Amino acid sequence: MKKWKLWKNIFDDKLPSSAEPSSEATSGFADDENKQENSEVTKSDILCSSTSRYLIQDLIGEGSFGKVAMGVNLITSQDVALKILKTEDTAEREIKMLYVVSILDPVKKNIVQFYEMFEHKGQTCLVFEMLDRSLFQLFKEREGTPLSLNEIRPITHQLLTAFDALKGIGVVHSDLKPDNIMLVNHPSEPFRVKVIDFGVSFKTSENTRGMTIQPLGYRAPEVILGLPITETIDMWGLGCVLGFLYRGRHLFADCEYQSMKGIVDILGQPTDHLLSAGYYTRKFFTENKHWDNPRWWMKTPVEYQMDTGIEPKRWQSPFRRLEDLIIHYPEMEETKLEDQRAFVSLLKCLLHTHPKERITPEKALTHPFVEMDHLEHEIDTSLYVEDSIEKMMVLPVNHSVNSEAEEQSKGGEASSKLPSDNNVGSDTPRSCVSLISVKIILDSTDGAEAAVAIDATVSQGAASQAEETDGVSADQGPPAKVKRSRMKTIRKNFGRALRALFGMKKRE
């Protein structure tokens, strides 16, 4: 209980915009007070579109943007979430971005599914799939208890997948925070998530330099300084979210000055050429014209207040550098310590102060923390690694894997009906692909049949790896000895996976 009280005191029930459940309030649009009372949507109302009728079951959120309601489609009996917008400007921008984003696969790309929009008594209604709860709501239920790295890893992978897809279509979300990340169905699919709220999203082709976007506490340095804005601000936001999930506290303050000071103290001061190009640099820094000193100095709180008339909030950073997140207990398993190091390494890549040096979603998906490369050697001896593999099973997998496994269990020849690595969704990390295939086999077969199937999968994986290696040009290709070594490693890792997963099945 003490822990929960401390966590409540940190936020003091006045959550920064980076953590408020009504995330759309960050859009900055004012309430439309001229709306007539008879246009307000209430519980038990029935709203009609050209194709469907929706019964409002409950109102679950409200902000300056409008309301969020839980409803049911009376035609299909499907549960839905309805976002009822107050202002035309808010609706126009969000609808535009939703249609842009709707070309993405909502399941594979971890984006909320948008169904339709319609007008109800002059108000724009947006219909989405019904999701479970936000990560921020989950934190409240856990009384502020941080997530483990094994819980953070699948969330990380899914968000990177989402932002890689958004980057591919030239969209910047710009409002990432824990309450804009929704759990899909936490009881049945733990930590499967989707990104929501595209109310303040924009195309990368738009000129947004100098605009105040992103929630405080999650705001990238280039936004604070007034530098050109790209999709890299979403990677900064992701780094802040992951830090929050791991610590249970925000990495940076919900105050512009203290946020900038925290960035300088923990990550280092942005380079002089970035500071010199910023529209708002002089708001936080003083130019030093002495050649024997740094060109820019961070203003003190007193100097900042004198120049801007704004008194900075009090803020005590929870640590001095990112490495302080690594906690080593005397009896801690070395694997856990190594995993912490990998996590901090990823945070450093996400929170680089130079936008062009910040890691891309595509590159981050191959980072050791996500790929679990550093855990492979402990797969048959560590319960921690076993748990990490189990948690990653929530990642999207193509239906063809399950269907093939079902056919196999009906009596088909094991070796001819294997779920191949190619059938596993592209959203699944390489290091998990084979493990998932093995687990599917174990779940659908028993005894000797499973052994035959797994042995065939091992051979299939080895052959696939060999083919990839053979595809390399002659001047770059490794010698045959290296190819055989890779095959041996694949078989060895499958052996470890087999022992670990058989153990998991026995306990079930």
Automatic annotation (TrEMBL):
Biased composition (Low complexity): 16-25
Bias kind Basic and acidic residues: ranges: 32-43
Gene Ontology MF terms: ATP binding; DNA binding; protein serine/threonine kinase activity; protein tyrosine kinase activity; SMAD binding; transcription coactivator activity; transcription corepressor activity
GO biological process, one term: intrinsic apoptotic signaling pathway in response to DNA damage by p53 class mediator
Regions of compositional bias (Polar residues) in chain numbering: 417-428
Region Disordered: start-end pairs: 14-43, 402-428
GO CC terms, sorted: cytoplasm; PML body
Protein's UniProt name: Homeodomain-interacting protein kinase 2-like protein
Taxonomic lineage from the root: Eukaryota, Metazoa, Chordata, Craniata, Vertebrata
